[in-house]
Design brief:
The chain is of the alpha/beta class. The chain has two domains: about 230 residues, 3-Layer(aba) Sandwich (Rossmann fold); about 170 residues, Four-carbon acid sugar kinase, nucleotide binding domain (Molybdenum Cofactor Biosythetic Enzyme, Chain A). Helices cover about 40% and strands about 20% of the residues. The strands form two sheets. It has a 15-stranded mixed beta sheet with strand order 9-10-5-11-4-1-3-2-16-17-18-15-12-14-13, with helices on both faces. Strands 6-7-8 form a three-stranded antiparallel beta sheet, with no helix packed on it. β7 and β8 form a beta hairpin. It starts with a strand and ends with a helix. The structure holds adenosine-5'-diphosphate. Adenosine-5'-diphosphate binds next to α12, α13 and α14. The site of adenosine-5'-diphosphate has 22 residues, from α12, α13 and α14.
Length: about 425
């Protein structure tokens, strides 16, 4: 029961991102997929556990229910502090879910107030005078104003949050943060006396987030993106050098890609250009009843087992649009996710021990198919893209789950070559 911090992330790849941040801070970190049950395993001796939910754009009541179930599970594992992780661009609708989930976690913990800061300086997300910037633009002037699910047309965090909660929202501005930990603690107490429940804090740098993390160490509930999580992680007394998690070695290496993001398409192109075995899955043929999975396995068995292989459904925007028009978006996704999930199981049965999965939804499909409920977070191949250690029915696996747009263009080559 050493668990110090329990984190609830509102989406899948956000969970990976924040888990990598805790590990950078030197915490032994587990990542759990979906609302855990009594039987969900937690690797031994973890300092941090991150539960990755998909609660960002679900109805608020559902997001609250799942988050509370996750909080109860984390408490049952002995965690003292809950960190609610949302996107560094504060992705939410006018009514939630950041406000309702924060309030529910605070109510359940009997906590008077929380500190909230979505800043993530390495990614250009900073908070000044309560306004969220994306590089040199206000959030509301950035491309996020056109986000398909959660368009962000206001940059004022106090205003955004006030619309999502019946409670008071306050601000700790940069000059106080720059005065240091004691000044921030005093400001938190002053807000508490004034009945403020959500305290937004300014932060421009990782040093600012380290101050905020140290000041928030005793709060039962803290909220923000990966930046404040890392600041908090560094404040824990045990945090030091990141522990080297031993990853499974040997076995075959494979990439399964279902992301159609520009960066994943570049990564596929580099892998292919290096002359490594690559196979594109014909989604329309699969929908028409051809046994594409069996064909892919025959192809896999014929490859040199010493080389990593890539199997991908990923398509260019034009190709994707054509498939989606013919099958419908949901059916196309179901075909792809069904194929890649089934192939993941077959690959592991055939001795793949290093598996890289590209795509947030695709990662969900693969972990579900492999019945992987929790992994231990290891070293990062690229920022926010860690290797993880996963136990499966067929043996232990080095597993990398990456969001479509994450990682450098040579990630597939580098990540799998390093481990050959
Ligand atoms: P990202 O992280 O880039 O958003 P995801 O895996 O979350 O990647 O989403 C990609 C979506 O595109 C998945 O639902 C996947 O099933 C779908 N998809 C991938 N390839 C194709 C294709 N060839 N035709 C239609 N849909 C596809």
């Amino acid at each position: 029961m050493t668990l110090r911090i329990g984190c609830i992330a509102d989406d899948f790849t956000g969970g990976t991102d924040v888990a990598a941040a805790f590990r950078r801070a030197g915490l032994r970190t587990a990542l759990v997929f979906g609302v855990p049950h009594a039987t969900t395993p937690l690797p031994d001796d973890c300092d941090a556990a991150v539960i990755a939910l998909k609660s960002r754009s679900t109805p608020a009541a559902e997001a609250v229910e799942e988050s509370l179930a996750a909080q109860r599970w984390l408490w049952s594992k002995g965690t003292a502090q809950i960190y609610f992780k949302y996107c560094s661009t504060f992705d939410s609708t006018p009514k939630g879910n950041i406000g309702p989930v924060s309030d529910a976690l605070l109510d359940a913990a009997g906590a008077p107030l929380t500190l909230a800061c979505p800043a993530s300086p390495p990614n250009g997300r900073t908070v000044y005078q309560g306004h969220l910037f994306v590089h040199d633009q206000l959030l509301s002037d950035s491309p996020l104003r056109h986000h398909p699910l959660t368009p962000m047309t206001d940059s004022s965090l106090p205003r955004l949050l006030a619309a999502q909660t019946p409670h008071r929202v306050g601000l700790i501005a940069l000059p106080t943060v720059r005065q240091g930990v004691d000044a921030v603690r005093e400001a938190l107490l002053a807000h508490q006396r004034d009945g403020v429940r959500h305290v937004i804090a300014d932060a421009l740098t990782d040093d600012d987030l380290a101050v905020l993390g140290a000041a928030a160490l005793e709060l039962p509930v803290v909220t923000g993106a990966a930046g404040l999580a890392e600041g908090l992680g560094h404040a824990y007394p045990t945090a030091g050098a990141a522990p080297a998690e031993p990853l499974p070695t040997g076995g075959r290496a494979a990439v399964l890609a279902g992301s159609c993001s520009a960066r994943t398409l570049e990564q596929i192109a580099q892998f292919y250009a290096a002359g490594l075995p690559s196979l594109h899955l014909d989604v329309l043929a699969a929908a028409a009843g051809r046994d594409i999975a069996a064909e892919a396995l025959t192809w896999f068995d014929a490859q040199n087992p010493d080389l990593p292989v890539l199997v991908y459904a990923s398509a260019s925007p034009e190709e994707l649009a054509a498939v989606q028009q013919q099958l419908g978006v949901a059916e196309a996704a179901a075909q792809v996710e069904g194929l890649l999930g089934a192939l993941a199981v077959q690959f592991v049965e055939r001795g793949v021990r290093r598996l890289l999965v590209a795509g947030g939804e695709t990662s969900g499909a693969v972990t579900t198919a492999l019945d992987i409920r929790a992994v231990l977070v290891g070293e990062e191949a690229d920022p926010g893209v860690p290797w993880t250690h996963a136990a499966t029915a067929h043996g232990d696996l080095a597993l990398m789950l990456k969001s479509g747009n994450f990682g450098a263009p040579d990630l597939f080559l580098r990540a799998l070559k390093d481990r050959t």
